[in-house]
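Why do we care about 3D structure at all? Because function follows from shape, and shape follows, mostly, from sequence. That is the central idea of this module. The next example makes it concrete: a single protein chain, its amino acid sequence, and then its structure expressed as tokens.
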Amino acid sequence: MSVAGTRRFRGLGSPASRFVVLAVCAIGLTLAGCERASPAGRLIADLRSVNPEVRRNAAGALRELHDPSALQPLIAALRDEDAGVRLQAAAALGGLDDSRAVGPLIATLKDPDNNVRWAASFALRDLGGPAVDPLIAALKDSASNVRASAAKALGEIRDPRAVDPLIARLEDSDSIVRSIAASALVDIGTPAADRLLPALRAGDLAAVARAYLFFVGWAEPGSEDVLIRTINGKGTLEMAEVFLNCGNLRLKDAAERWAGAHGYSTVSLPRSGGGAVNWGARR
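And the structure:
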């Protein structure tokens, strides 16, 4: 005989099945706790802290762990309001060796903070081959700081595919982009030299004038005569200033003669270093 108002549990089945369900739930809770307790898990949680110093330290520590589970949290940290967090996140992504970081790092080349952009360029260098084509595309970006950062990264990667796109940047509208592209070509080395040195050896002054920044950085033995003929015939104020400051005495003298002939005088200013090209410094 049933008792009116008796209550029963529904859906859990037998006592044995109830035990199984409860055991599974307990295991799930234990695993979640272990994840939070792992070094990477704790640091990933710290990326959500309200304290920017905690977030910076967490991103910096994740850089040392190289834990794949940090990929998406670090990508999200590239949009952090704190520039230090974004910088550390970019640097950490370079150490994960995961091509999924390439797109977000390319986007970070537009970051308003110069140090963050450089961190992204070095991270893309560390990612290597998968980053080359997106970086080549970034050489045509409308923002000069993106083009400069992309050129820097391509020089560090040293992939021959970048030679022709970097040669095109030797005529960029921005002097810093031109300088960094020239340095990148010197870093790439022989593949770039094979494309550019024939013009120097043939005495093609128009071609040498377009690529003079590369030739100053490459410092081909005996190239001073052609470079001096180039400034005399195709010289510009920018070329004269590069020759004046590159550290080669013959080019310095040629620059001073060109400047005097065109009504310029030499003044000493603090050197910013942004667009400097030194004679043979990278060979």
